[in-house]
Amino acid sequence: MAVLHAILAEGAPANLWNPTAIGVLTVLCAVGLFCGSTYLLLGTNLGARLGFLVAAAGLSGFLVLLTTLWLTTPGSATGNSDLDPPHGNSASWKVVEVVDDPGASKIAPVRDLPTKGIAGTPELVTQVKPAIDAAIVTAPVVAGQTAKPQPFATLNISSSTDYLLAFPGSKSFQYIDKTQNFFWHRHRYATMEICLARKDATGTIVNGANGPVCDPLKPTHFIVLSYDYGSVRKPVVFYWLFSLLFFGLSLLGLHWWEQDERARKRAALTPVPAPSE
């Protein structure tokens, strides 16, 4: 495998063999080398069945410890630990609707935002800006590639400078469900009012005293966003549960082997009945 990696490192073109097949073979060789060598040593001293159970229990116990460390440490992404556990999607804002007024939303908490929500903050504007750009700004189509679906890009906005998010008189609200629970996250919504930037006859954006200004002849729109808490810990939880199940089955197998061994010893010690005269 080392020779294959050295040959392929010379710049061979990527294909099914490299890196897919080579990657699979590398993992199989690593498992066979480390796990197989341990089983070989245990099997020659304890027997094939008991050696396999002891090796499986040791491997699964190590996995339980490793995944437990993953669960209890935040990972190197936060700078608090050198461990870097596998993680899922990060938390982010996602656009779910584009409406002319929050009262026209299909989401009940969003319809109540003007009366029950709290006003948006400059920090909120900074957080939602990338999500809004990705949703309502029409992405350029690259030749030979299929365009990504953009169901909310209906305002004919081709650049992030074609609209204003925080303009004088704009309204923004956010809502956080105050229901405390343990098994799922609280709902969090936000609405941001946007306006189209004013342009002259040549299509150039008109600047005012403080930068671009809204086009008074075009209506404003409200972008409805929902906060996705992500699934950063979900893969680690599944790994931990699988390792715990693997460890429990290994211990159960050792328990059954011990029961069988005791039964064999009892059978060997059973006195032979004396022949009758």
Can you walk through the features of this model?
The protein is an alpha+beta fold and 277 residues long. It has 2 domains: 2-86 and 234-260, no CATH class; 92-141 and 148-228, no CATH class. The chain has helices at 2-8, 20-46, 48-72, 108-111, 113-116, 122-136, 234-269, and strands at 92-99, 118-119, 163-164, 172-176, 188-196, 207-208, 211-212, 221-228. Strands 1, 2, 3, 4, 5 and 8 form a 6-stranded antiparallel sheet that branches. It has a two-stranded antiparallel ribbon with strand order 6-7. Helix 2 (20-46) packs across helix 3 and helix 3 (48-72) runs antiparallel to helix 7 (234-269). The relative contact order is 0.14. The model has no long low-confidence stretch (mean pLDDT 84).
What structural keywords apply?
single chain, 277 residues, alpha+beta, 2 domains, six-stranded antiparallel sheet, two-stranded antiparallel sheet, 8 strands
Number of strands: 8
Mean pLDDT across every amino acid position? 84
Q: Number of helical runs?
A: 7
The fraction of residues in strands falls at 5-15%
Helix content: 40-55%
- Radius of gyration, in Å, reads 31 Å
Please state the structural category.
Answer: alpha+beta
Topology order in helix (H) and strand (E) letters? HHHEHHEHEEEEEEH
Major sheet? 6 strands, antiparallel
Number of domains: 2
Q: Flag low-confidence runs.
A: none
**Intertermini distance:** 73 Å
What's a quick, concise take on this entry?
The protein has helices at residues 2-8, 20-46, 48-72, 108-111, 113-116, 122-136, 234-269, and strands at 92-99, 118-119, 163-164, 172-176, 188-196, 207-208, 211-212, 221-228. By secondary structure, it is an alpha+beta fold.
